[in-house]
Write a structure and sequence with these properties.
5-stranded mixed sheet
């Protein structure tokens, strides 16, 4: 099989090391080396890691990932989609804590692999024999991490973790310290430290590439809520085969998700590689301009422009996210001081990175706090408006999915014709009718990024084998 320049460039790292590592991996596979997928969803607040079998998934190629979307809709997960081991880490504790090295490799990846003793590490201690995955070792790891930040040259800067934010208000009297946290997939791939040496391939993708590919793994009957009636039937009909065993043309999909930050992506079928099904493309749509919808939101915009020293505009993520929810509450507490509950406000001020969670918890329940509920109403209105913007931009007839950690926790503010989310979503003036053609779902699971990272890792593994097979 001929090796194309495009295929070589598709691999990670430099062209030279990429080819050498890939050839080594394929050679290792041919000699019986056991392969596992080491994947992670690395957000601004939490990191979720998992180990999946790769060999059990070899028939589940990248083409199968798209086909699995409809297959999984009528049943449970296949065994190869169940993790062997998984764990969640709080970044504030492990990465930015006082005793941390501020590196994911040392503070999270190595401890995770050290705990994963159900794999056959060839009798090797994770602290000894720090030679890069040689032929005597019994297994290899193909890694993919979906990271909350832009990815360039297989390196990601964490947008909402540890770094100096250019929009953030600063002490005008002195220079601010750059504490940016980077993840470098090429360095991880070359590492010989402990069990990191078993990683023969490491790819970083934007967290919403992970979310996007995770959509293909959703069970539409169990893991989503229809926000527009008939959405499931519309998607299933579009993805069904006709009498001649051919698929109908598949429309684009899109995903909008608020968690610590706000992410967006879209998926289209590939004209160059149709057998691969959907391809996912990241965006930085969470950083488009926030547009206020009423007089109070105009005041909010002006407050945030002053807070973040931005004279002209504010990103929608400053409003639609966990961080945004905290910003809104902070504004409302100053705008309506008589509504402030002192106990809740004290908890909020001492919550650190979890301020948004304090607001969210107190906005829900049978007796919600008035100020927290008002903050949630504003955030969900802005969330629905931005989701409607995505519907108009992409016209995703393959489905528009509202994901992220805030969705299942606050579903009462999202579902229903009279919810603040749906009112704003449908309020598109002359184009409101167009939204009737867009299937709309709320995703009720929080491991979408992890599932998508598995799909990406599996594609890497299969691409390496296919590219360099003879």
């Amino acid at each position: 099989m001929a090796t194309s320049v495009t295929a070589l460039l598709y691999c990670l790292g430099t062209k030279k090391s990429c080819k050498a590592n890939a050839l080594s991996t394929v050679a290792n596979t041919s000699t019986g080396k056991k392969t596992y997928l080491f994947v992670g969803d690395i957000g601004g607040t939490n990191t979720r890691l998992a180990i999946y079998p790769a060999e059990a998934s070899t028939n589940a190629s990248s083409a199968d990932a798209s086909a699995d979307a409809s297959a999984d809709a009528s049943g449970g997960k296949a065994k190869d989609k169940e993790p062997i081991y998984t764990k969640e880490f709080l970044n504030e504790k492990y990465i930015t804590g006082p005793n941390s090295t501020r590196t994911f490799e040392q503070d999270i990846f190595l401890p995770f692999l050290s705990e994963c003793n159900m794999l056959d590490w060839d009798g090797d201690s994770d602290d000894n024999n720090n030679n890069k995955n040689d032929d005597n070792d019994g297994l290899q790891l193909v890694a993919c991490f979906a990271v909350a930040g832009p990815v360039k040259n297989n390196t990601a800067a964490m947008t909402n973790l540890g770094g100096e934010d250019k929009d953030k208000d600063k002490d005008k009297g002195g220079a601010s310290e750059n504490t940016e946290i980077l993840i470098n997939g090429n360095d991880i791939e070359q590492s010989t430290i402990g069990r990191l040496k078993y990683i023969t391939k490491c790819k970083l993708v934007n967290d919403f590439v992970g979310q996007g590919y995770g959509l293909l793994d959703l069970d539409l009957n169990k893991e989503v809520i229809e926000l527009v009636p008939g959405s499931i039937d519309a998607v299933m009909k579009a993805e069904a085969k006709d009498d001649d065993d051919h698929h109908h043309p598949l429309g684009p999909k899109a995903c909008v998700g608020a968690g610590t930050g706000l992410g967006e992506c879209f998926l289209t079928t590939s004209s160059l590689h149709p057998d691969d099904g959907y391809e996912c493309y990241p965006t930085e749509g969470g950083h488009v301009d926030f547009v206020p919808r009423d007089a109070l939101q105009v005041k909010l915009l002006n407050y945030l422009k002053q807070k973040f020293d931005q004279p002209n505009r504010i990103s929608v993520e400053r409003v639609v996210s966990g961080i945004g929810l905290a910003n809104i509450y902070e504004f409302l507490a100053k705008e309506f001081p008589k509504l402030v509950n002192k106990d809740i406000h004290s908890e909020f001020e001492n919550a650190g990175a979890l301020q948004g969670k304090v607001v969210g918890v107190n906005a829900n329940g049978d007796s919600p706090d008035e100020l927290c509920k008002k903050a949630m109403d504003i955030m969900m209105s802005a969330y629905g408006a931005e989701t409607g913007n995505c519907a108009l931009k992409y016209i995703p007839t393959g489905g528009l999915y509202v994901s992220g950690g805030l969705t299942p926790k606050n579903i009462q503010f999202i579902k229903g014709e009279d919810s603040p989310f749906m009112k704003a979503y449908k309020d598109k003036g002359r184009m409101s009718g167009l939204l009737d053609s867009v299937p709309l779902f709320a995703v009720m699971v929080e491991d979408l990024g992890l599932r998508g990272a598995r799909v990406c890792a599996l594609r890497e593994y299969n691409s390496m084998k296919n590219t360099f097979s003879v």
